[in-house]
Request: fold
Amino acid sequence: MKSFLHALIFSIALNILFFLFDVGRGFLNTYFYQPQMIDAYRESSHLKNEVALGYTASLDTSILILFFQLVDGMLIYYLAKKAFLMIKKPTA
Reply:
């Protein structure tokens, strides 16, 4: 049970780290973005007619994605732990 809790905490921390990385990357992209006037005018009709605004995924999909992210994080934890134990194990 202790190992499961460690894996769950590791998985949650990994997801938070990825989220913060995406937020930071988005902030930097927004901060340093310098649009070209000709390109911006061409894209304005695309933005008005083609781009979906808002959150486009359903709640079921979001929950499923979060579940698989947690399982992947736990799997990474277990595999890393097993690999480190194999490396650490003294050879006789």
